[in-house]
Write a structure and sequence with these properties.
- The protein is mainly α and about 450 residues long.
- The protein is built from 18 helices and six strands.
- Strand 1 and strand 2 form a beta hairpin.
- The longest helix has about 35 residues.
- The radius of gyration is 30 Å and the shape is elongated.
- It starts with a helix and ends with a helix.
- It binds arginine (ARG).
């Protein structure tokens, strides 16, 4: 029973939040004349001493005291005697743990927001340095149209911006204080829930005492946001793996973010990126674990809910680690501008530009232009040359009205420069997007 019941090994991480919650509760009890100022003073001093002991590493956590709440309460009794027992007036471990956990998730959100912002900053730096560096854009991992390296990186700045938004939404909804809900029904003592809520930085007390102690939707939302952020990071990690491979050679990573092989001396393995790619499994698992714990639980508190902490702690730690790794990777990577440009010119990547030219210059319907371009691509393929290298006579054999003005749209720089629609890849647009993102995300 002790082994399955004890959660102290996991929930000792809540010690700072537990002490803060107890101090706010204690001060409120004194203000409401439920607790004498002397007793309140003794409790507050005892709690401070316990915080010092835990931070110094001298506090002894005991399984027989089950969880962080009872461990601290037991130590408080050792330090200040029976008056320690007055702290639990008008409170239950149910509203206590719900409060602690909300505070912990709130802190985690603030740390993750800073880490996401940092990663955006690193992406913006690289995007700025390579706003006009032409690379192939892909669909189906086939070369599609030329884009710029900066534009491609800015896609991730947007994704991480929405991830920050999801965490911020979660934070807004979770920021209500369960304290005073007590076991589930509220309390007969004349407490002041607003006061305790304000002392802990909550926006207001939670409106329903049963809901306050029995839902963990804030933790589920946190895990959902983490899973999605992890998914974004895994997509970027996968691109780093592909880009840094010999076959692509789009970027180079330094020794700081790669490892050698124990047998093949030439290897530079992108382990950091591979590990970020793999951690997605943990985030998704954590989300499903907690959803499954909560499914079908009758109101109000059930001990099942003690299982909420492992997935949340693991996901938060892992996401912080992944963000640190990705931020480092982004700063570390060096694009090979020449290889990127050469690759962008392969695969007839300006075929759409040719079709667009036929529409604009010869006023052909797009479908017809598409068909003509297909035929021209086949001829280039047969000759083993690029579109720009096809002689005009070959082009005119397919469509007699084509003039040599068409060559103006067939090189990749012009292609990129022409995509100047809002949100497009033309370098001036990319630079505008970078400036806007700096104002929006880094200000
Ligand atoms: N360790 C418990 C948890 O994390 C604290 C709440 C216990 N409440 C109770 N009524 N047994 O859920």
């Amino acid at each position: 029973m002790r082994r399955i019941n004890a959660s102290i090994g996991v929930d000792k991480r809540l010690y700072a939040e537990d002490i803060a919650g107890s101090q706010a509760h204690c001060a409120m009890l004194v203000a409401q004349n439920i607790l004498s100022p002397e007793d309140g003073e003794a409790i507050a001093r005892g709690l401070e001493q316990i915080r010092g002991e835990i931070e110094a590493g001298s506090f002894v956590f005991r399984d027989e005291h089950e969880d962080i709440h009872l461990n601290i309460e037991a130590r408080l009794a050792e330090l200040i005697g029976p008056v320690a027992g007055r702290l639990h007036t008008a409170r239950s471990r149910n509203d206590q743990v719900a409060t602690d956990f909300r505070l912990w998730v709130r802190h985690a959100i603030d740390r993750l927001d800073a880490a996401l912002r940092e990663c955006q900053g690193a992406l913006l730096g690289q995007a700025e340095a390579h706003a006009d560096c032409v690379m192939p854009g892909f669909t189906h991992l086939q070369i599609a149209q030329p884009v710029t390296f900066g534009h491609h990186l800015m896609a991730y700045v947007e994704m991480l911006g929405r991830d920050r938004g999801r965490f911020a939404d979660c934070r807004r909804r979770l920021n209500e204080s369960p304290l005073g809900a007590a076991a589930l029904a509220g309390t007969a003592f004349p407490i002041d829930r607003d006061r305790a809520a304000a002392a802990l930085g909550f926006d207001r007390p939670a409106a329903n005492s049963i809901d306050a102690v029995s839902d963990r939707d804030f933790a589920v939302e946190f895990l959902a946001a983490a899973a999605l952020a992890g998914t974004h990071l895994s997509r970027f990690a996968e691109e780093v793996v592909i880009w840094s491979s010999d076959a692509f050679g789009f970027i180079r990573l330094s020794d700081a973010f790669t490892t050698g092989s124990s047998i093949m001396p030439q290897k530079r393995n992108p382990d950091a990126a591979e590990l970020v790619r793999a951690k997605t499994g943990l985030f998704n698992g954590a989300l499903i674990a907690l959803l499954t714990v909560m499914k079908g639980l009758p109101l109000a508190y059930q001990k099942d809910m003690q299982e909420d902490k492992v997935p949340v702690f693991e996901a938060a730690d892992t996401l912080e680690l992944c963000l640190a790794a990705m931020t480092g990777l982004v700063r570390d990577m060096r694009p090979d501008r020449e290889r990127l440009r050469d690759a962008a010119a392969r695969g007839f990547s300006t075929a759409t530009d040719l079709a667009d030219w036929l529409v604009r210059t010869l006023d052909l319907p797009f479908r017809r232009a598409h068909h003509i371009t297909g035929e021209i691509v086949r001829r280039a393929e047969a000759r083993g040359c690029s579109l720009a290298e096809l002689p005009l006579t070959e082009l005119q054999a397919v469509e007699s009205a084509i003039t040599d003005a068409v060559y103006g749209v067939l090189d990749v720089e012009r292609s990129v420069a022409s995509r100047a629609s809002f949100g497009g890849t033309a370098p001036p647009r990319v630079r505008e997007a970078i400036a806007a993102a700096r104002r929006k995300y880094l200000a």
